[in-house]
Specification:
Lipocalin, alpha+beta, 8 strands
């Protein structure tokens, strides 16, 4: 019985460690952030919230929530703010400014392929997103 409990704890710690590991190690620098995000759409979810935000411009610019598309009569795309890159090297963050909705800085870590972890620079909260070249998410 004791070995089953110990194995369960080891598995739990391993899984928790993998989840936390995404916000550790080297984050993307300012050049890598610009390459990964410029002209791309970030697809992400947190609970019931879903994002598909188009990063217009190179190295910063307009941030558009695609919603149901620009011509949808009920829930059309809309500009929700701006995005920019602040800092250099290990201090680089992507900054999202939603106007009255607030400003948020995220360190970004590559998870492999087109998956990235966006880690809130102040709270450490992680949001995993997929970056796609299409205007909307699959």
């Amino acid at each position: 019985m004791k070995s089953i409990v110990i194995r369960g704890v080891i598995v739990f710690v391993s899984i928790a460690g993998e989840a936390m590991a995404a916000c550790t190690g080297p984050n993307l620098n300012q050049i890598q952030l610009s390459t990964a995000l410029s002209g791309m759409t970030v697809c992400a979810t947190r609970g019931a919230e879903r994002w598909q935000e188009q990063h217009q411009g190179t190295g910063g610019g307009t941030l558009v929530d695609y919603k149901n598309g620009p011509s949808d009569p009920v829930d059309p795309s809309e500009t929700v703010g701006t995005w920019s890159i602040s800092g250099t090297g290990a201090n680089a963050v992507v900054r999202y400014d939603y106007g009255n909705g607030g400003t948020y800085d995220y360190r970004v870590y590559g998870n492999g392929g087109n998956s990235y972890s966006f880690c809130d620079a102040s709270s450490g909260e992680e949001i995993v997103g997929t970056v796609v070249s299409a205007p909307s998410c699959p």
